[in-house]
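Collaboration report, partner site 2.

Our partner group contributed sequences for two proteins of shared interest, and the home lab folded both. The records are reproduced in the order in which they were received, starting with the first partner submission.
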Amino acid sequence: MTATIPRLDRTTITSLAAPHGWTGTTRAVFAARYLHTLVGIRRLAALLAERASATLAESGFPASLEAIGAAPADVQKRVLNHPSAAFWVDVAWNLVGRRAPERFPEMHLLPHLREFARFALSALLLQGKGQLTAEVRTDAAGRISLPGSGLALEGAAPWARTSLTVDDGRLTWSGRQLRVPRLVGGTELNWLDRDLRLGGRARFTYAELDPGQAQRWQHELNSHLDLVGAVCAPLAEEIAGGLGVIVPVLSPDPSRVHVSGSFHEAPGLVALALGEPMATAEALVHEYGHQKLNAVLPLDPLIVDDTGEAAYYSPWREDPRPLSGLLHAVYSFVSVADFYRAVLDTPDAGGLDPRSVVNRAYQVVRQVRDGLGELRAAASLTPLGAAFVDAVTDRIEACGGSLPPPPLEDRRRIDAERTVHRARWDERHRAPDVTTAPTTAPTTAPTPAPVARLARNDALTRALTHATLRALGLPEDWAPGAIIRRWYPADALLEAVRDLHQLRGGKTAGVLPDTVPGEGLIPDLAAAHLAYVSEDYRTAGMRYAACVNHDPRSPYFWQCYAFALRHLGRRDEALYILTHTEALMARRSPLSVDQDVRTTPEDLAWGLRLPEAMESAPVPVRPVNLSATEAVERELRASRYWDLAEATRGGAQLPTLIAVASGLKPAMDLWVPRDGWPALRGLTETLGLVHHVDACFDRLSPQIAQMPPGRLTTTRAAFVPDLRKGAEAHVFLARDQAALDHVVGSGWYPLIVNGRVVDKHRADHDTFGEALGYPACCQDFFRKRNNWNDDNTYYAALRNTRDRPSPLCNPHLRHTLYGLVPYMPCSYACPATIEFAGRLHEVIRSELPLYAAAIEEAMSKPLLCVSELRMYGFEGEAVHHDDGMVTITYSGAKSLYPVEDTDPLWALLRSGDRCTVDGNIIHVGRAGAYIAGYEARGDRHGPECPFVVSFT
């Protein structure tokens, strides 16, 4: 398994801006893409041999790797150059990045390694010799695909574990063997391989084709490829070489909306719908442009330090795009414009309407010019990137100069649509009108530009910087380029400070060199972080202010400063900063912790507008939806806690409130809708609690859908400055002011502000649990294991459980009326949690015996947990264990925390009366008949690890 990496220079990168056929350069960049897959497999094998040797041996992966390694090079390439192989490698490394070898080896790593056998079996089939027997899983349709061989096997049960044998070219299989059809040039038309659907990462409606439909798809796609070949033979030659698979998808409205997509994790794969001939032909050309650029980017990023932040205008989209996405669009649509120019130069090409082609070409040329202008203004390009963009610019100008103009009326219409599109985008993605811009600085946000300058470029500054980095164990050439001018920075300096603080047990005096504010950005930032984790928030604020003065255009410094102010009790000023960051980034006067950033009466008057400060108006009050028996409800209505049910319209977290009111817990937080606000005020007065509202949350904001995957957790909301209809106030409750100050300081939740997610200071994760009164063992566990992107905290608690799970350690009801445990315990048998929940239960029993009995019953019921978002309880349930699998029979299913707009697993469970957890597969049936299976994935945000836990 070998290949060579091509070397790019200005000449070769310029040549790649236009199609020249399957030439040496084009072929080489695609070969490098294949090499990336080969290297990924070899590195994976070496890493797992060191870190997970037992799992590796059990999976059979070494035998599969040996079998495919013995195959001829052309056979290896046919199999491992298949998009499914690249996607398999991407998933494997995704799991490694999430530490699956340690965190969930049996749940996700082991089954994924077993699936590599499909590639080895394909290789043995193609070469006609060798023997291998392996266990793999079928897909949702009971199929097994053998990538590269052109075969798919059908006839087994859905998601079944199946043994396959290939012996000297003969496959042992009792079901049907389906042939994957190919188009002209050899591209597969493949709807049979589940990996080509990318594990749910792409939200398409995938087509299942019968033989007649498959023939129609082949005919139409071949006609489009023939058209490309007729008007631009070099482009057709490149498509044949670089496009491995077309996966058929369906458009919601083929006459108006064309659907297609390419994916860097599956090179050679294009998802494509059939539609109007002109749109489908354009999509083929367009998607090949993505394929080619995806092959180039691993060799040179073209853009310097692209953060991936979706913040830029694209003439083709309604949503903001990252710079890489804009580069992709510009490049692929240059090919489209050139294709249409070639069509117009070829009489009667494909039967396309000339006027439609002229109009579309005119529109695309102007879109590309607009996109190039946006790209050049916002992106810092590498030397090769600059040469590439110059070549793309030359290409579009040459194309535009040779195209005939549309009729005047069409040209005016297209130009007007272009103007309206930009105006509508600016209006939609301008900062929402939820704040009052400060009058002390211009409101125009500065153009981002990566810089990393020290405050003083002299020997003292350099010496202090190097000494600071050495003290933290960081290399002396470490630079803050990944932090400055960034909204979502990964801060290695802060992580080093947190690690050092923990290692030294909080005794960090004298660790850093003695400096004064302003002597260097890195010394100031390190000193600020160290003061923050040491809970010296005054010093932290002073040093963060110095960081802002070094570079006021870095939003991260402003946000760190704001969080220091929250701890100092300057909450209104902190909220102002967090909601006006972009405007404040244009500030020219120095920042001082001794002065308020709000300098005008208008600035100082800005703040949350809560009902008591608003004009009185009748508020429609929804009925309380209490999930309780009549007897329990009567008991609760007569209690001093009933106002919580009125405030939340359902009584969620009532046990937690009782814990705070009784002194078992110092503080809590909850969300209160507008119609529950009067009851909340009454509740605090009745129980003698203090409270603070730090923000209002809009969970229906359209900004939520615009966030990149993985930026939000269970809290999915945008900031609004008032408790309007549909919004909720985030309220902290505490027994006394000191406890309230402590919990508010650490208690910010991820919240979308003006189109960007504002996260809490990372060090506040270390103190929030203490402020809420959680056991030290559970705080430590939470800090280590509650990483939403990489981990599954509930599954980690299960693996950490040594004794039988206790009902008093059931955290899954914490968002309901019946949860005694308001946090994630370190195990389902945590002694500290059992003690806390037991004491709380006794307090409730002494005052509300019927409610206490209902809690005990609810917490003892078994449940199915998949992730923090997907937890399910059952009615009429019974649990059965059989050969490592767990089955629940039930009469009803409910989601314990319905946060998502759509939950396919909940819908599936509601349709059945039986579910079986078989590794990462959940089978659902009803009345003895199989309905469907659900595949829990570990390679995406919020890894899913299904398990049944019984609290008996």
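Second partner submission, folded after the first:
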Amino acid sequence: MKLNKISAMFSSSKKKANNITIFGATLTALLSMPAAYAADAEQVAAEEVDTSEIEVIAVRGIFGSLKAANLLKRTDDRIVDAIVAEDIGKLPDSNIAEALQRITGVSIESDFGVGESVTIRGVSENLILLNGRSTAGPGRGGISLDDFPSSFLKTVEVVKSPTPEMIEGALGGTVNMQTVRPLELSEPLYAFTLDGEYADKTENVAPNFTAAMGNNWDLGEAGTFGASVNLSYQDRELRRDEYFNKVDLQDDIDIDGDGTVDVSGGPNGKYLRRTESTVEQKIEERERTAYGLSLQWAPTNEDLNIYVDMNATELDGGQAAYSILDVGGTVVPRSDSYYDSNGQLHNYDLTGVLTIPKTWSDFTTNETSSHAIGAEWNLTDNIELFGEYSISKSEERQVASEFNLRPIERTDPTLKLVTHTSTGSSTSGDGIPSYVFADTGMLTNPDNLVFREFFHKTLDTNNEEQALRFDFKINDIGVDFVSAVKAGVRFTDRDYTANRFDLKPNGSTLKDVYKNAKNADGLYSPTWIDNPIIAGSFKTINMDNSFDQTGIAGQNDLLTYNVYDAERLQDAEATYALVQQMLAGTTHAMTGSLADNMVEDTSAYKEINEKTSAIYAQFHLDFEDIKAVVGGRYIQTELESSIVDSIDSNGNRILTTGKNDYSDFLPSLNVTYTLSEETLLRFAAAKVMRRADFDELSPALSIDNSLVTGTQGSYQLDPYRVTQYDFSVEHYFDGGGIVSAAIFYKDVQSFTQSDSSCLADSATITGQNTTQWNNICLLDTAGQSQGDIVNATEAQGLAYVDAEKAAGRTGIVIDTDVNGGSGEVRGLELGYQQQFDFLPGIWSGLGVNANYTYADSEQPDGNPLLNISKNTANTQIYWEGEDLQLRLAYNWRDRYLDEQTTKRVQTVGALGYNVFNQNDPTADGYDPTVGNSYREARGQFDFSVSYDINESFTVVANAVNLTGEPIEYTTELGSVWAYSEADRRYTLGVRAKF
């Protein structure tokens, strides 16, 4: 293998500067293409980069990282941005997604305040690669970015304009994570990091440990052998507090009681009403263990390089959650009631409300791996060959339990149970509303709370892809303006399965057993929570620092509640035994163990096999000041999607299979014009495609425990297909500075949208939960599914829905993704980076890195695309001296459409019809904006500092979400319906390298 000349330059530079570079040959990998074979010296020379500038870059510290990232951007044939590690095992942020949000055009999606995925130029359908190959997660896009340790990486590329050799599947961009290869090391490597992360809501300190070791050895005539290994361990506990309402539209009401209806100012003569106040507080525990192993061997002639890469991550953790739902009630205005500018009613009472306390436990284990064996062979000075076999796998098991209560007034065994209700008083102000019950013991008095139901399920998901690829490159084909030709093939075989088992003793779930299970006398005899069987399993919750970021507008009784202990619920066997005792002697008495009563939900079984074959060719053209990469990639996809048709007499599944085969040709062009030594102009055009996710490709049903809503896919879905254009200007100046601007346009074809229907299912007669009766769809004819969604009116109410349910005329709302029309995204990116080394004294260590993105989008129905903010800005201000580094980062993104069919706001739209019809323009009440939920604009400060004690040891500290910024969600009409907040995270630790 030719460890190219830039490797030597960096090694020499490192010794001269007496600094430790990250990898011995950092920018060797930076200049390589995704196919993973090293760029040879002739190609590097062709880039006309000033090697004197290259030699002084020792990648250490903030500025060294930014400067190296700029060099990658400058010398790549594509439109690329990158993050480069500041030192061994140290990306600028400890989380990969949080590091990538500093890049122009990139925003992140977070869970429990931790970045887990990215949107690139407003598009979330992206591809996560590891060393240029696929990764596997539960879904299509690859591993979650919070599941892979950032300490394993030397660089992370974001490729916005693809070339034919790149793996297809990214609509916004491709994220390529690159690890250290052992033959890149110029000296032995030993490094570790140990830190503790404090989360301010859970008040928990999470340990985080990483270690890296690597070396290579000269074996004489046997060649050179190298090995590197990475280990990482993390055990964290986080909390998320959420408060949300159901919002609908009602006719104007008489607020002041003068007999005249007051005009709300809302659309279509209606006001916005908030009901179903809900508090959900979830604690997530996550333990992550990961390892990476890389082996390389190069024979003495250095024309061949054989490598083995092995990476694996094991996750164990779950969520313990409490949910308090306030249901029903009739609006009664008060003397302080008023309408705001959106027509939303504030300060009012709800009479006749009841509360539903719930406890959830969700434990997940996930094992992901990405292994590869490959070889790079310089067959001659002119011909390079590359081959690789890889296997990526994800195995996930989710174990979920739910223990719910019901407000029933204490009584002797009876056939007439009385639901305990009260009056709730809502008062608006800063933060979440105040909510006070007339009954002070509404959520704590054991006289009013009984065991309602216990659910338990397991979900297993397996996703495995095997890939084989061969590539070759010819550097000289005898044509002056063709500097190289690349071509290759890639074959994949992917198997995806998903299966579900539910607790169904006696053939049915334990839904509403308080009113279904009868004693020996034929009477209902519910179990109140102070019953000796279960009394010791309950606790009163009043968490410290609840909603301390959002604020609370006074007393809120929903924050103090008596519930089944979530830690006990995590032991499903023990909880099952308690339920078994409670139901002994009733018509729902259970025999056998928990495992004995787990029943496969065959309607939810999914089995998908997907085979792809791809061939590509690309030409590297060189016309002195103009360089280009042009070519195309042709892909054939063969899909088989199977569901269970029946079960034979031996208990084996009989499957029915649907097939869908299609092909795509993806041409691309990347042109770079060197306007001057400092300024580059780039143009790119390409067609890209993304296959639908696996859940969307299976017609298997996924229905919630309440038998109210569900989802279903279709194997006939076409992939997303996008035609995109990019134009950019990059100006580089002394000291590693850059000013850049880019415009982009994406034309999205084969667009998918959600289509809702009402599914007839006989199970609803006995199993459907009608507590939230206004979410249940009504059937025109019992037993016949229909396309229209019809809900009961306020005047009809719960009693009407229960009567329709008994007659078999209630259904399940099923959301199905279908191919629709087209959409588009257009935007602008601006970037600026500079270190002010011209300033005197210590001020010369000051630097800035800032960017701004504008993106505008539109779907066929006039709505914007999901997850696209019109305005996004990122700024980093840093200072670094000889031993000390400081960085303050700010990320801000504008309001964006988060979801389109949000159940809690599904009848709220711009036109004010209060009807859920977003798909049928020919039907009454059509409004494509109903159900839209927006995440409001939000900014976040992060801070980091490090101090080099000596050449080997560094103290590091970080703060994420420094000012504790919450998240707000609003309806199409701008009214707030949900609040969410998670921990501030503070990290302190030490990093060592030898």
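Feedback sent to the partner group on the second submission included the following. Confidence is low (pLDDT under 50) at residues 1-58. The first helix runs from residue 5 to 17.
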